């Protein structure tokens, strides 16, 4: 097996200084108290697993105060790796960090694992391949280790890499903070980025194409997702979060990778609430801003069922705003059953929602739970609904807008292009204001 190569900085002064310190470490067992810029380069070995070689390189850099472990071009096959603080794992373009096909080579339910660490990067243009490793004793009888699993970590950067064939979630984070995920590609597998009890995440320039939810998690805070592409055979965002911004993104279906359990490819919803009771959720979801987003051939734009929706009954949603949305070839725009205390507020501005040509929408359920109505835009139990400069193109047979049991509804400069005689139905709403409503009937 090729031995790690220790590389020093180019400066001759630094070279001498670091070499002396390194010799001092070897001969006197002294400990470095100051972080040093070491780099260990590894070459691939085709004769067996490289788990020990890569882990030893990570441990060596960590023991010296920090540094970079560099995987050069080629395929590195290994089992579980454990990250350490102050480390950069560099995976070059043309380099594949490939998981073992044997579940016995994994620990911590993860291919790459980090716990209670900080200040580390995973970067490069290489590939992390989970090889869909099967665990007969895993979730649903086959799910294997997560691709990257992080617990109680902070100051994390993941950039440029491709994660494919993750045996479970591609990136799994719990109690993590100050995380940057940039230009990351996810292909296949299950959930893309799944976060629970996390805060201060920036996700930008990413391209997630997953079999299960692209983004998921609960009790998150301060998330920003920008300039991303999302394709899935489940939901774009199955999320519980306080302060979520999604901006300049594209969602489209059907999914390129099949949902492994349900054996289907249709993309269910761009956004759906997530607050499972069994996670002892604490945070309400609120202050969502969804702006400049394109949605195409997705069944629903936003689904929220606080009454009995799947994993939605922990804590409620309090506020969400959509602006500059173009949704085409959908079955419904919004289907909302909020909490009976009427805490939910929705604002939609300067957006267009168009029904799928030739489709017939008769399903009153979403993920096994009743939705009350197949209306193109349905909302029940709300504090305030404000629709301004929006167009609802409903060529289906069902009603277009139905609002039930609310405090305030404002329709301003709203256009209804529909195939039924009644544009909207309002019941038990205390205050209704209608300004500049346009209705165009187009019988098919």
Fold and architecture overview:
This protein is mainly β and 444 residues long. The protein has a domain at 1-164: Pectate Lyase C-like (3 Solenoid). It is built from two helices and 35 strands. The protein has helices spanning 12-28, 51-63, and strands spanning 5-7, 38-42, 67-71, 74-78, 81-82, 87-91, 95-99, 110-115, 118-123, 127-129, 146-151, 154-159, 162-164, 171-174, 177-182, 185-187, 193-196, 199-204, 207-210, 215-226, 229-232, 235-252, 269-273, 286-296, 300-305, 319-330, 332-337, 345-355, 365-366, 369-370, 377-394, 401-412, 415-418, 424-435, 438-441. It has an eight-stranded parallel barrel. The chain has a two-stranded antiparallel sheet with strand order 29-30. A hairpin with a 2-residue loop joins strand 29 and strand 30. The protein is elongated, with a radius of gyration of 25 Å. The N and C termini lie far apart (71 Å). Mean pLDDT is 91; it is low at 1-36.
């Amino acid at each position: 097996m090729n031995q790690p190569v220790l590389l020093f900085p180019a400066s001759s002064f630094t070279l001498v200084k670091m070499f002396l310190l390194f010799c001092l470490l070897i001969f006197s067992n002294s400990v470095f108290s100051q972080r040093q810029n070491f780099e260990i380069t590894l070459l691939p070995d085709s004769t067996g697993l490289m788990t020990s070689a890569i882990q030893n390189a990570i441990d060596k850099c960590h023991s010296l105060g920090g540094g970079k472990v560099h995987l050069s071009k080629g395929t590195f096959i290994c089992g579980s790796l454990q990250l350490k603080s102050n480390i950069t794992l560099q995976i070059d373009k043309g380099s594949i960090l490939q998981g073992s096909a044997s579940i016995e080579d994994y620990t911590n339910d993860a291919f790459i694992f980090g716990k209670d660490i900080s200040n580390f990067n995973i970067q490069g243009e290489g590939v992390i391949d989970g090889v869909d490793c099967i665990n007969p004793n895993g979730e649903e009888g086959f799910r294997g280790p997560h691709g990257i699993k992080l617990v109680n970590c902070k100051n994390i950067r993941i950039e440029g890499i491709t994660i494919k064939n993750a045996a479970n979630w591609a990136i799994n984070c719990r109690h993590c903070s100050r995380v940057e995920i940039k230009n990351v590609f996810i292909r296949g597998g299950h959930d893309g980025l799944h976060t629970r009890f996390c805060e201060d995440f920036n996700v930008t320039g990413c391209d997630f194409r997953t079999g299960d939810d692209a983004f998921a998690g609960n009790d998150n805070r301060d998330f920003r997702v920008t300039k991303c592409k999302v394709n899935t055979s489940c939901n774009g965002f199955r999320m519980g979060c306080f302060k979520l911004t999604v901006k300049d993104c594209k969602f489209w279906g059907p999914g390129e990778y099949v949902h492994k359990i349900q054996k289907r490819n249709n993309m269910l919803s761009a956004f759906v609430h997530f607050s499972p009771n069994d996670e002892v959720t604490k945070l309400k979801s609120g202050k969502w801003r969804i702006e400049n987003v394109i949605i195409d051939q997705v069944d629903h734009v936003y689904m929220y069922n606080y009454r009995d929706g799947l994993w939605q009954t922990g804590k409620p949603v309090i506020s969400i705003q959509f602006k500059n949305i173009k949704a085409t070839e959908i079955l419904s725009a919004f289907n909302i059953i909020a909490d009976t205390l009427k805490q939910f507020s929705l604002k939609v501005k300067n957006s267009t929602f168009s029904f799928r040509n030739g489709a017939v929408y008769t399903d009153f359920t979403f993920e096994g739970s009743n939705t009350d109505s197949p209306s193109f835009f349905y909302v029940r139990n709300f504090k305030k609904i404000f629709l301004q400069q929006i167009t609802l193109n409903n060529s289906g047979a069902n009603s277009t807008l139905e609002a039930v049991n609310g405090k305030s509804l404002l329709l301003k400069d709203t256009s209804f292009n529909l195939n039924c005689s009644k544009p909207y139905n309002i019941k038990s709403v205390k205050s209704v204001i209608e300004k500049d409503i346009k209705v165009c009937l187009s019988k098919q």
